[in-house]
Amino acid sequence: MIPIRQLADTNQEQFNVGRFSIRSISDVAKGKDLAHDLHKHDFYFILALETGRGFHEIDFVRYQIEPNAVFILRPGQVHQLKLSADSKGYLIEFDHSFYQPKNSAVEYQWKKATGINHCEVEKDRFSKLLGYLSNSLTEFGLKQEGYMEAIRANMDLFFIELVRQSKNPGQILPASYSYTQERYEELLRLLETNITSIKSVSQYADMLHLSVYQLNAITKASVNKTTTELINEQILLEAKRYLLATANQIKDIAWHLGYEDTSYFIRYFKNQTGHTPDAFRKNFK
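The structure assignment produced for this chain is given below.
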């Protein structure tokens, strides 16, 4: 089985907003060649390279590393990477809970951008993309008030500009954007917007016009998780958001999440996280 990597909790403050990480390639490589063996992610992965040598293989299509290039991987895609020690650029990782455009115009550009695994950019235009990523790295490092919103704004601009610079800006989703990946991402969007009222695997399967068996096959193939596991993750993410971002009482948060029995919600939360909601709020706020 191909290993599936998960995005680490780099900052406990991010429990309520999803997960995000940005690093410079030179900091990741630390003066040595960088090699990632074949694996998948359960998050989005962006590699923006100003300079470098090597190769990047995505879904078994091999690309030679060239300067001024951007690679985007969607959750569930398979890749391996070899980069020379002198490579420069940025590596960005985030999950759908951190960044999923709500504005329809930006979402349209986002779908175009994430449908392109590899984009070569002219040198004089690449600096504009690097500027948005440099701003994001600064915001992520300083963590001043509103830094997450500032990062998302820079990500919006990055994806809009990337689509402008693509050789095929009119193309929304290429043939390589597989049926499995598309349905998986549809499920993530449905979970994000419906989790407080819908928690049944069969209901999500119906919304996607799939059988429960087909939906579980899609989630297992994409990130090696069952649909139930993804539903639980989304419930917990929503609970953590409210616990850390509001002063609402636990019974009110339980009600918001669709649990009339507060004690059941508390047991469920503790079973999943190892903490009661109150303890989680005190430990991580």
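Interim note for the steering committee: The longest helix spans residues 123-142. The chain has a mean pLDDT of 87.
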